[in-house]
Amino acid sequence: MPKRPAADPFRLGDVDVAPGTRQRVLLDVGTFLTSEPLRLAVHVLHGNRPGPVLLVTAAIHGDETNGTEIVRRLLRDRRLNRLAGTLLALPIVNRPGFVTRSRYMPDRRDLNRLFPGSTGGSLGSRLARVLTEEVVQRADVVLDLHTGAVNRPNFPQIRICPDRDKDLELARVFSPPVILVGHPKEGTFRHACRTLGKPFLLYEAGEALRLDTPAIRFGVEGAVSVMRQLGMLRGKATVRRLPLVASRSFWERAPAGGIFTPLVPLGKAVEAGTQLGFVADPHGSGDTPVIAGKAGVLIGRTNDAAADEGDGLFHLASLEELDRAESRIARTAETLPTAHEDEDDHPVPYDSLNDTI
Ligand SMILES: [Zn+2]
Fold first, then answer.
1. Cα–Cα–Cα angle for 228, 230, 234, nearest 5°?
2. Residue 133 carries which DSSP code?
């Protein structure tokens, strides 16, 4: 058997990570008001064999815990023991927000509007710069993990930029029920990575501060599938379901203030004119129905019981061909992981630092 070429050490910051090992590398960002350092913790899993570099980021919004859990499970996944190439994994990008259970940085700025960042800007801007220049620049592909806001769960979906064949190929392999194609806002991590020409998948699933087992399993299996497609892991990437691809989405908002009752679950495909829920006058004088103005699949919803007029209640991905959508969504529902927790969700912990892979 010819010997396969070994990888070179992977350098991040001032640390060299040897092939076949993993290490947590800390990158300096600045200091907190307590004078303690703010550092970006990057897990580097460097395979024995050369290959591409996948960056997985979570909790850019500090309260989006599902992504952190996805990275945590990936880091202890035994399938990564025979890695080719390098996985750079950040379970917590926005550490101050994670500590305070907040979406934002301590100065109330949204880190995901501060990219690509700068050396002389706010703490968040400096954090964005370190992530962009010291980590993203080293990556070939980026997978960024998000959830909906508090009380606003999202149906599992991948968001990608338009006209990017590689992004679409990897999104299909990730196999979410829905792929949403759209232009990212300036200042977002996605926009910065697109500007650098990196293929970029944004995974949205579940809600803030709440673990969602199906959404987490989707995320782990999607990331493994992407790594297979990139040649980083053995096995063939399988498209487990044919995702719906939508290029537009819209919100249905509260037509009046009151007590909100939803009638349609996440993932449901609806026709224009379908009643999605109703808002009831708390004084008992009547109900106002919430109607879908166009056909779509429900990809996000509020769980708040109270709504002011104009509050966003339902987020729908636009659909042109509803019949096809319904059959696909029905097939998707059959393949959704169950919410049942089993042993595989909680493998025996081990010391992930400086471990051999
Ligand atoms: Zn987010």
1. 30
2. I
* Cα torsion through 203, 209, 214, 218, rounded to 10: 20
Q: Tell me which DSSP letter residue 131 carries.
A: I
Taken in order of first residue, the domains within the chain and their CATH numbers are 10-244 (3.40.630.10), 248-335 (2.40.50.100)
pTM over 0.85: yes
- Render pLDDT for 38-64 as a digit per residue (tens, 0 to 9): 999 999 999 999 999 999 999 999 999
| Rounded distance from Cα 115 to ligand 1 centre (Å) | 14
Pairing assessment for the beta strands 269-270 and 287-291 based on DSSP bridges: unpaired
For 132, the token pair is 């962009």
Give distance in angstroms: CA of 148 to centre of ligand 1: 7
Alpha-carbon distance 131 to 137, whole Å?
Answer: 9
Ligand 1 centroid to Cα of residue 29, in Å, is 21
- Tell me the CA–centroid distance for residue 297 and ligand 1, in Å: 20
